[in-house]
Structures are given as structure tokens and as C-alpha cells.
Write a structure and sequence with these properties.
Calcineurin-like_PHP, hydrolase activity, eight-stranded mixed beta sheet, 15 helices, five-stranded mixed beta sheet, about 25% helix, Purple Acid Phosphatase, chain A, domain 2, 2 domains, alpha/beta
């Protein structure tokens, strides 16, 4: 297949290979997903592996965690390694982003296992074609290293060690937490945060979540010791005492509103606080294990004179969470890319960074009590991988008229799930552009209405005998787009 017909970026995350969360059904689905990427006729241009791939946290608390290299050489992991090598050999760009569960993976070990062709992202994110890819644990306060603790590990690390011992399969927020998060926003959460400054409250909370992870009462487990990789150990009661002031520390570092948003993210996976400040066309993450495809209205920044500035982009930002391959549920995200016409450029309400004019920064909140902080050492504001961009550098030459010749941007995002022995589209969303009236304003333009009846949103495939999801999008305007060549067959039909 000609490489130029490859116009899809696939994102998978949260495989948790080698742990009890990754089941046999997940393994079968993952094999089908990667085998498609390894086919010569594939439409996949890039594969982004967005963290939590090799499990280093879900080790029983009374056992020492294995080394990074031994984790990747487990018998249960080797089939995945072989498939990724085949994908790379098929001229598909493969990006590897570390998550919180594999944050200790070193570059040397990854190179020894996968070779030099794997693109290892050194940092928390990678961006190309107006899309930001990250794991997402940077928004989760319970998955952040805590400098106030002796070992400075995230508190969720210890919860995972307990869950590995008990076999707890609770790998994502419960429905009750999701419902509560929807009812209580960040502003209300920030007013409740001071409750955690009283030590009995965080102590009660931490003891409760550890008891749930261990499936035993606190009195039974408080003296248990968690064995660390270096041979040292730490007692659960000491851990609870060390992390009792964690939320107060977060408030002092990030500000009340952001700290509340980070705690809300820990409980429910809600990322609206950051998505509304995003300068990107599309944000893709994992971490929460909750497959999501939705849009957020961007906030307006507050200027020094107190007035609100125009939005960074006049359209909504699309947020996609790739879900996971755990607990029997297997999901991933496909991003269809298309090239705009030669008349569409940075003056057509496209981000100027697509044309090399400037690097974006996340919008500051218009709330007075939001505190920004400097980026970590070694992390650029916009980790731009020009080599990974499908845009031809020759087309990115900026002309005096402000017109770029055919820019490749995300056209449509698809949430794909495994069911009935194949992958089917659960939901699809067009990326909105001001120059393409069919891509936004879903309430007015029926051609872009996705909330339709199942019968209207699917088609019956006679070969497989199943209903195959088809996104309800209108025909592309040929004056705006070059039609992407995308295979809509189910995984069963491709095998």
C-alpha cells in the first residue's frame, strides 16, 4: 500500500501486561488490534502507546518488584513485544509514552527490548498535527509523587500493591464516584477542600481506600509491610501518616481550584479543568480506564486589565480517552487525518503552531485563585515532534499571504470497542473547524448529530452477522478536504 494512503493515528493505553487486570479476553483483543497495524495494507500511519503498558505496580505487597528488563521479558508480555516489532517493521511510527504504572522504565531497557526504531517520548507528552498525546496521570493527585513522604512515591502505588495481593479488580472509578463528580464541580470541591486540613479527615480517607484495596479492615492490615524494589520496606500505618497532609501540600503548590480539580480527577477521571484551557485541536489521554469521547468549550483568558481575551481557538476542543485493555473491556481511539485545501491556512482559525509560527501554552484560568507553576526541568511547553508530523515540511513554508498549502489536521475521532468477537465503533466525533460548516454546531446541522437511534447509527454486516458501527458524518466537502481512505470493515472481516 502506498504510504500516503495511511492517514490514521491509533492510540492504545493501559494494557497492564503481566497483571491480573489484563485478562485473556483483553489479550485476544489486543492481538487483533496490533495485527491490523502490522498488515501491509493497513491505514495506520502512527501508533501511540500512551502509558501503563508494562505493569510495575501490581506486585503483591509482600514481594519485591522485579527489574524493568525482567518485566518486559515475562512470558505473558513477549507476544506483545513481538507484535510491536512487526508494527515497526511495517513502517508504522510507534510512540511510547510512560504512564504512572511503568514510570520506572528506563530508556536503555526499552531500547534493548524494542530496538532503535521505537520513538520513546522523554517527558509527559508528545504533540503533532495539532494533537496532544499523554498518559494523563499528571492531572491525578493520587498518582503524583509526594515530596513530603519518606519514599516520595505516589500514594496510589501502595494501593496498587495491596490490590495485587487481594486480587481486587477495581481498576477504574465506580459509578457512584462518577455521578458524584458530575454533581459537584471544581468550585464546590474547592470549598470542601479545607476539611482535609483537619488530620482526622485524610487519615479516615486513606485508611478507607487501603482497606478497600486489601479487602480487609484497617485494624487487620495497619501493621503490614510493603516490600520495595531496593529491599527496603514501609509499614502501612507509616504511609497513612506520611500522606495525611498531601492535599494541603497540593493546595499550597497548585492553588485551591487546581488542587480540587486534581482530587476530582483521582476520584472520577474528570479532566474538564485542563481541557477547557487547552490550545490544541484534539487532546488524547488514558489513565482513568474510562473510554470517553466528548468536546469542551474553551475558557477565555483573563488579561492584565481584568477583561477576557478572545479564545485561543474559536471552536471546542475534542477530548478522547482511549480507555484500557483491562477487566474484559478493550477500547482504543482512531484519529482520521485529512489534508485541507490550499486555501485553508493559519488565518482560517487554525492554530498558528501548525505552521511553525509559535508554540502554545495552556490557557491560564480566569479565576483569581488559580496559581500557575513552572514546567518541570527538561519538559518544553510544546513537545513538538516534527519528524512525526504527517505534514510535509515543504508545505509548511509560510507565505506572505498567510496561506499554507494543504495542512494535515485531524478530521474525525472514533472510539472503538471490542464486542462479539470484533472491534466496532462505539462513537465518532468530527473535529470542529470554522472553515467547515459540517464539522460543528451539531444542534443546527443534523448531518453531524451523533446521538441517534441504534438502527440509524449502525449497518448490518451480512458476512459477520453483526451490526457494525458507522459514524454519522456527512460527506466531505471536496472543496475543503481530500477524502481520507479509511477501511470501515470490522476486525472479523479483516482477519
Amino acid at each position: 500500500m502506498c504510504a500516503k494512503s495511511r492517514n490514521v493515528v491509533r492510540v492504545i493505553s493501559d494494557l497492564h501486561l503481566g497483571a491480573h487486570w489484563h485478562t485473556k479476553a483483553n489479550s485476544n483483543a489486543l492481538t487483533v488490534c496490533l495485527e491490523e497495524c502490522a498488515m501491509p495494507e493497513t491505514h495506520i500511519h502512527s501508533l501511540v502507546i500512551a502509558g501503563d503498558v508494562f505493569e510495575q505496580w501490581l506486585v503483591p505487597y509482600n514481594e519485591a518488584p522485579p527489574s524493568c528488563l525482567s518485566v518486559m521479558q515475562q512470558a505473558a508480555v513477549l507476544p506483545f513485544v513481538d507484535l510491536v516489532k512487526k508494527v515497526i517493521a511495517n513502517d508504522v511510527k510507534v510512540y511510547f509514552i510512560r504512564g504512572n504504572h511503568d514510570d520506572e522504565l528506563d530508556t536503555a531497557s526499552l531500547r534493548e527490548v524494542f530496538g532503535e526504531s521505537l520513538i520513546i517520548v522523554e517527558g509527559e507528552e508528545v504533540c503533532f498535527n495539532g494533537i496532544r498525546f499523554q498518559h494523563g496521570h499528571a492531572y491525578d493527585i493520587l498518582s503524583q509523587p509526594y515530596e513530603g513522604a519518606k519514599k516520595q512515591r505516589p500514594v496510589s502505588y501502595y494501593l496498587s500493591r495491596l490490590a495485587a495481593h487481594s486480587g481486587n479488580m477495581l481498576d477504574r472509578p465506580t459509578v457512584s464516584w462518577l455521578t458524584l463528580s458530575l454533581l459537584i464541580g471544581n468550585r464546590i470541591s474547592s470549598t470542601l477542600m479545607p476539611l482535609f486540613y483537619f488530620k482526622p479527615v485524610p487519615l479516615f480517607f486513606l485508611r478507607g481506600v487501603m482497606s478497600i484495596a486489601f479487602k480487609a479492615s484497617w485494624s487487620q492490615i495497619k501493621d503490614e509491610q510493603i516490600v520495595l524494589r531496593n529491599g527496603e520496606s514501609v509499614v502501612l500505618s507509616e504511609i497513612v501518616s506520611d500522606y495525611a497532609d498531601m492535599l494541603y501540600y497540593a493546595k499550597e503548590r497548585y492553588g485551591m481550584l487546581r488542587a480540587a480539580a486534581m482530587f476530582r480527577m483521582s476520584m472520577s477521571g474528570n479532566v474538564g479543568h485542563w481541557m477547557r484551557r487547552s490550545p490544541y485541536l484534539l487532546e488524547v489521554a488514558g489513565h482513568s480506564h474510562i473510554p470517553v469521547l466528548r468536546s469542551y468549550m474553551r475558557y477565555k483568558s483573563l488579561l492584565s486589565d481584568g477583561t477576557k481575551a478572545p479564545r485561543t481557538l474559536p471552536t471546542k476542543v475534542i477530548y478522547a480517552n482511549s480507555g484500557s485493555f483491562t477487566g474484559g473491556e478493550s477500547t482504543y481511539v482512531d484519529i482520521l487525518l485529512a489534508r485541507t485545501s490550499h486555501e485553508v491556512g493559519w488565518r482560517s482559525y487554525l492554530p498558528p503552531y501548525l505552521f511553525g509560527l509559535e508554540h502554545p501554552h495552556d490557557n491560564r484560568s480566569f479565576y483569581d485563585n488559580y496559581k500557575g507553576e513552572a514546567l518541570p526541568v527538561g519538559l518544553a511547553p510544546h513537545t513538538w515532534d516534527r519528524s512525526g508530523s504527517i505534514n510535509d515540511p515543504a508545505r509548511l513554508t509560510q507565505q506572505e499571504s498567510g496561506v499554507a498549502a494543504g495542512t494535515v489536521v485531524p478530521y474525525e475521532v472514533r472510539m472503538v470497542e471490542w464486542r462479539d468477537g470484533g472491534f466496532y465503533i462505539r462513537k465518532a466525533k468530527r473535529v470542529p473547524y470554522r472553515f467547515d460548516p459540517t464539522s460543528f454546531n451539531r444542534r443546527v446541522n443534523k448531518i453531524n448529530a451523533y446521538d441517534v437511534a441504534k438502527k440509524a447509527a449502525t449497518q448490518f454486516d451480512e458476512d459477520s452477522g453483526h451490526y457494525v458501527g458507522v459514524p454519522v458524518t456527512g460527506p466531505m466537502d471536496e472543496s475543503m478536504w481530500e477524502r481520507p481512505s479509511v477501511d470501515r470493515q470490522s476486525a472479523e472481516n479483516r482477519m
